[in-house]
Design brief:
Blueprint: E1 3-4, E2 14-23, E3 26-29, E4 31-32, E5 46-50, E6 53-62, E7 70-74, E8 84-89, H1 91-110, E9 115-120, E10 125-130, H2 137-149, E11 154-160, H3 161-166, E12 184-190, E13 194-197, E14 212-221, E15 224-231
Parallel strand pairs: 1-4
Antiparallel strand pairs: 2-3, 2-8, 3-7, 5-6, 5-8, 6-7, 9-10, 10-15, 11-12, 12-13, 14-15
Helix pairs in contact: 1-2
InterPro entries: Ala-tRNA-synth_IIc_core, Ala-tRNA-synth_IIc_N, Alanyl-tRNA_Editing_Enzymes, Thr/Ala-tRNA-synth_IIc_edit, Transl_B-barrel_sf, tRNA_SAD
Keywords: Metal-binding, Zinc
Protein name: Alanine--tRNA ligase
């Protein structure tokens, strides 16, 4: 129902759209640049505009009422069904999500264990790894700094489900599986570093991530180690 423009270009911050459905607290649009909560990544915020009217976009979610729809949660009285609106994403928040999400791919390359939890916000990124091995904070920070400085290109492509089935090792997450039934799956490649299915938004080059620090390493259970990243 909603054409998700951000899947092919995370640099897009604005688009024109039409309201195709109304839900409590928000609207579903025919197209959008706003990323909906999913895959561990927080939803985009920003604004919707119609002429001189402006609504604060407080969150973006996948619609539970309209399959394939993206729900834009708004403050105040909703625009009318069929209204032509413009969508504008909060650029600073989007960029933070892109930087942190790409950083988690670098973390996966440095720590080759299954991932059983993930959270990506505009202030931190967290990955939970299924292992009982101890982690070295200084070594992780040094590895991240090296991969950022090496300026690896970051790109996505689509593969068919049969190709994914033939390469099950591409899936690192134990808790979030790639969506099935569409015939194709989006994979994210950090050139020479990491390749795995991912629908999130990312920077175009690891150099765009900037400085990172390991804010915390926790032993969450006998078989779970948590790593929390923040910007330096």
């Amino acid at each position: 129902m909603t054409d998700e423009l951000f899947r092919d270009d995370a640099n897009l911050l604005h688009c024109e759209a039409t309201v195709v459905a109304l839900e409590e607290g928000g609207v579903v649009l025919d197209r959008t640049v706003a990323y909906p909560l999913g895959g561990g990544q927080a939803g985009d915020t920003g604004w919707l505009r119609q002429g001189e009217r402006r609504w604060r976009l407080t969150d973006t979610r996948k619609s539970k009422v309209h399959p394939g729809g993206v729900l834009h949660l708004l403050e105040g009285e909703l625009p009318a069904l069929g209204a032509a609106v413009s969508v504008e994403v909060d650029a600073a928040r989007r960029q933070a999500h892109r930087r942190f999400h790409t950083a988690t791919h670098l973390l996966c390359a440095l720590l080759p264990y299954p991932v059983d939890g993930c959270s990506i916000t505009d202030t931190y990124a967290r990955l939970d790894f299924h292992t009982d091995e101890p982690f070295d904070k200084a070594a992780i920070e040094a590895g991240l700094a090296r991969l950022v400085a090496e300026a690896h290109p970051v790109r996505h492509r689509w593969i068919d489900e049969a190709e994914l089935d033939a390469n099950p090792g591409l899936v690192r997450s134990m808790s979030v599986q790639p969506p099935r039934g569409l015939g194709r799956v989006r994979v994210l490649e950090v050139e020479g570093v990491d390749l795995q299915p991912c629908g999130g938004t990312h920077v175009d080059n690891t150099a765009d991530i900037g400085g990172l620090v390991v804010a915390k390493i926790e032993k969450k259970s006998a078989k779970t180690r948590r790593v929390v990243l923040q910007f330096a």
